[in-house]
Design brief:
This protein is of the alpha+beta class. Helices cover 42% and strands 15% of the residues.
Length: 412
């Protein structure tokens, strides 16, 4: 869908821009000397089982965020964000890929899909390895390969997510500091493979009693191996008196021990902000909350800000229009915690009946969006005044009682 160049040509119709649309690579020039090297290491982050598991665990949980749009501008885009941001991806896959690109390459772009009037109607996640920021006549553009087609659009209209944002004004830094751990992970895997292969091989050391020529020694070695080690179903090794001695060589390949393996895994967990419990889905409430606060929420905040700046002008943002991502964290709490929190929040008007049902993964009910609050609560500053005003008093008597010696009941 070549939507970007078509829009650009309608706004700028000079020959140079038409030429740029036809041949992006020849027309644009790099505007900065910093050129990050993105590599998914041919043996890289997403090719290693441990690091892929870390990236996958993070992406799976980020993909459960629910996009929301506050304000009236672009409110019709909320359902698009919540269900199908582009023609080939639902929201889960869109967020999953966006998260994966961010963690593997530390840079992820969001391209807006625009209709013929220039309104945003969807979003594409774009890898940094297939895109490049370029400058043309003082204007920054992002050129990217989407579904085999080169597309370009103003950089100001693109969302850019970054990790390890330091060296460049535009790009997040690479994962080069993690290369040492990647090499250890790869060395550990190769050591195990070689160790298994070496352990399955049978080796012998034989001493020949007589003097032989080098060619004769080679032929004798091959004969001995063929007759004793190839298709030997008996398990018996036989040799004649030409051999003074035959001994089996006990091969003991070096393998990384358990503490060293755990240290390597810990380095990966520390780099990606996860732990064993998150990867194996055996986390406690406290572990989940720490994972949410440290790894999920910051990415959701950044993504919400990025899409907000893509969609809304400064005036629209000042009017309260924004995009944010929410997650029901209580779904990961124990039932006892859920009951306690829902009960506490419900009668104080913080949540509705349906929101309470959602915590327990139950369907909503009709009329369940009302809020309730207990009436015995009172504003603290009014407690004393309210008590003084509402103290019940007895009705005054119609006349004073007649006391002895005082017929009128008046004091003497």
């Amino acid at each position: 869908m070549p939507f970007f160049f078509e829009k650009s040509e309608k706004r700028k119709t000079n020959k140079e821009l038409r030429k740029a649309a036809q041949n992006v690579d020849q027309y644009f020039q790099m505007f900065t000397g910093y050129q990050p090297q993105f590599r998914s290491l041919a043996g890289g982050i997403f090719e290693m089982d441990l690091t892929r598991a870390c990236v996958d665990a993070i992406a799976r949980n980020r993909a459960k965020f629910k996009p929301r749009i506050s304000g009236s501008a672009y409110k019709n885009l909320e359902r698009t964000l919540q269900f199908k941001p582009n023609p080939i991806q639902d929201t889960y896959n869109f967020l999953y890929k966006l998260s994966t690109i961010t963690d593997v390459e530390n840079n992820a772009f969001i391209f807006p899909i625009e209709d013929s009037l220039g309104s945003v109607v969807g979003f594409w996640p774009v890898r940094a390895t297939s895109s490049e920021i370029k400058k043309e006549q003082g204007q920054l553009y992002l050129a990217a390969n989407i579904n085999g087609n080169m597309q370009a659009i103003e950089y100001a209209k693109v969302g850019h997510l970054r990790n390890h944002y330091y060296s460049s004004d535009f790009y997040g830094d690479s994962n080069q500091p993690f290369d040492g751990t990647l090499k250890l992970i790869d060395a550990q895997r190769q050591a195990i493979e070689n160790g298994v292969a070496s352990s399955s091989a049978i080796r012998f050391l034989a001493k020949i009693a007589s003097m032989l020529q080098p060619d004769d020694i080679t032929k004798e070695r091959e004969r001995f191996a063929k007759e004793n080690l190839s298709n030997n179903g008996t398990g018996v090794l036989l040799f004649d008196n030409k051999y003074a001695d035959v001994k089996q060589v006990d091969s003991k390949p070096f393998l990384v021990n358990a503490p060293q393996m755990q240290e390597i895994r810990h380095n990966a967990y520390e780099y990606f902000g996860v732990n064993e419990a998150i990867l194996t889905n055996s986390y406690t409430e406290e572990q989940w909350n720490a994972f949410y606060e440290g790894k999920l929420e910051p990415w959701g905040l950044q993504t919400g800000l990025v899409i907000t700046n893509m969609l809304f002008s400064d005036r629209e943002k000042a009017m309260g229009n924004s995009v944010f991502f929410e997650a029901n964290r209580l779904q990961y709490a124990s039932n006892a915690t859920k009951v306690n929190i829902v009960q506490t929040l419900f009668d104080r008007g913080f949540i509705t009946t349906n929101q309470g049902l959602e915590v327990f993964n139950m369907p909503p009910v009709e009329g369940g969006d009302k809020r309730y609050i207990r009436k015995e609560y009172q504003e603290v500053s009014l407690l004393g005044k309210d008590a003084a005003v509402n103290v019940p008093t007895a009705d005054p008597p119609a006349s004073l009682p007649v006391l002895p010696g005082n017929k009128t009941g008046e004091d003497s």
